[in-house]
Amino acid sequence: MNIVLASNNAGKLAELQAMLAPLGFGLRRQSELGIGEAPEPYRTFVENALAKARHASAASGLPALADDAGLCVDAFGGQPGVDTAYYATRFGYAKGDANNVRALLEQMQGIEQRRAALVSTLVALRSADDPEPLIAVGRAVGEIVREPRGSGGFGFDPVMFIPALGKTFAELPADEKNAHSHRGQAARAMIALMRERWL
């Protein structure tokens, strides 16, 4: 079965392809099918993921998988949350991972409470009209370090320190990161749901 990934993020595609490989599904990025990005007007991960999955499924005629993920910082009341991808633009920087990290570290100067969570919400639909979307959530709790560490991963991985592992996500090999990450947790839950409901 082919599934369209409602994202153009190469990092997400690579991670999700590896994690969903046991099911034998072909995962294709929506841009490969000429599908543009969906509007994301909502304030919760689940609403945005559902909107993205419906958009990609309607445009492709295929089942769709969407991920809406972000960083929720305790000291900022859970922000940037659904605005994570555009976080740097709030502070005059261009959109991008490196600028997001830079802006976050600048905004957290002098803040001692550095607890944060990376959250991933995956939504899968058999069709755009599927009345029973599959929804899986993963949450990785850690602390924001004061300077980037490691060269792996993407997004906020270089500053997301996981105390139980003693490293940032960017310092971990991909397989170890996937075993502990928010997206890895959500993907494992989604695989279980797909096996139970779709296969």
Description:
By secondary structure, the protein is α/β, with parallel strands linked by helices. The chain is built from five helices and seven strands. A seven-stranded mixed beta sheet has the order 2-1-3-4-5-6-7. β4 and β5 form a beta hairpin. α4 (174-180) packs across α5 (182-197). The chain starts with a strand and ends with a helix. Its cofactor is Mg(2+). InterPro entries: dITP/XTP_pyrophosphatase (IPR020922), ITPase-like_fam (IPR029001), RdgB/HAM1 (IPR002637). Pfam families: Ham1p_like. It is an enzyme of class 3 (hydrolase).
Second-tier CATH architecture: Alpha-Beta Complex
Can you list the strand order of the major beta sheet? 2-1-3-4-5-6-7
Q: Tell me the structural class.
A: alpha/beta
Q: What is the helical fraction, as a range of percent?
A: 25-40%
The quaternary organization reads as single chain
Low-confidence stretches: none
* Helical segment count: 5
Radius of gyration: 17 Å
Give the SSE order as H and E letters: EHEHEHEEEEHH
Tally of individual domains: 1
Number of strands: 7
User: Main beta sheet, described?
Assistant: 7 strands, mixed
The CATH class turns out to be: Alpha Beta
Question: What is the straight-line distance between the termini?
Answer: 10 Å
> What amount of the residues lies in strands?
15-25%
> What's the rounded overall pLDDT mean?
94
Return the CATH topology.
Maf protein
**Bulk shape:** globular
